[in-house]
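Minutes, methods subgroup
Present: GH (chair), OT, SY

1. OT presented the first of two proteins processed in the latest run. Sequence and structure tokens recorded below as shown on screen.
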Amino acid sequence: MTQWWKVLGSAALIVVGVCLWVFARDTEFLWFRGGPLGVVLVAVGVVDLVGSLWSRDRRRVE
């Protein structure tokens, strides 16, 4: 069974990261600026998305 909540969570990280990077580059959140924080969120979301989809494909083969 697919863990859709992990896929949706990863997609949400990617969307929030893109929004921060595009719309809030110079905005500061505590000690983070919006642009670099957005890039980090996109990277984490992509790694998590690829990991969850790859593990799903491996379970299907076994």
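2. SY then presented the second protein from the same run.
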Amino acid sequence: MIRMDNIPEHIKASLQSFYKTSEKPDVFPSKFQIDGELYYYFAFAPAAEQLIMREDGGVPRFHQVQREALIFNSYNTSIETIIHIGNKWVKSGKKGKYEKLKSILHDLKDKLPVDLANAYETYLMTADTILENQTIIDQSVKRAKAIWDRTNAEELATEQDQIEMRKCIVEMTRAAYKQNEIQLRTENEREIVWKYVSSKRWSIGLGQYLKLMPYQKNMMKNTPENRKEAEELGKMVLGDDLPLEQHENAKAVWEKLRNPR
């Protein structure tokens, strides 16, 4: 892994003129290789700006590394997404919770009237969909971490690594969107099952009622907050297939690049 204390002296010397004494430079933990050229990628806390430097210590002009800046930013952003969002989704406990929900629903099946069959099947399908997409999330995060670990160990990342990492983020985000969407779409059917179980709690069994209660309380409903959350994920999904230069943040990435104009 590349760190500021182990980069070559000629790189440190070349970097000095590009940051202030009040800033703390940091280097991306691997070099990037694009079209046979090797680059270092620097940040300067607390400033939200970056610098791209060639392996020989030369600093390309802005127009020479616009594409590279988008590739490096995309890779770094993907890693931050995995660390701050993907890990959270993996550790959410959804797999265990929704496997338990399926077991609760299976136990309820023979206790529900025939006219609730469609609502029941929709509720069960919701749990299945959440579980299927949780598996996608878990696998996507695992693959992304493997790429990150390898590039750190090799101290080298390529454009293909960025493409593969981005695929992991796309799959992860789409799966999370589907988890939210299915909950919002099936709220009415879940409510039908819940109302029956709640009204028949003594004949069906208080235990079944109490087991289902947390899901009724915690699964997403059509509130403004939940719809907003789903919409924000939806925006991420819609933009994921665009070329990097067409992303809405491309201009911001270029504006934060310290390479000389």
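Chair's summary of item 2: The chain is about 65% helix and 10% strand.
Next meeting: continue with the remaining queue.
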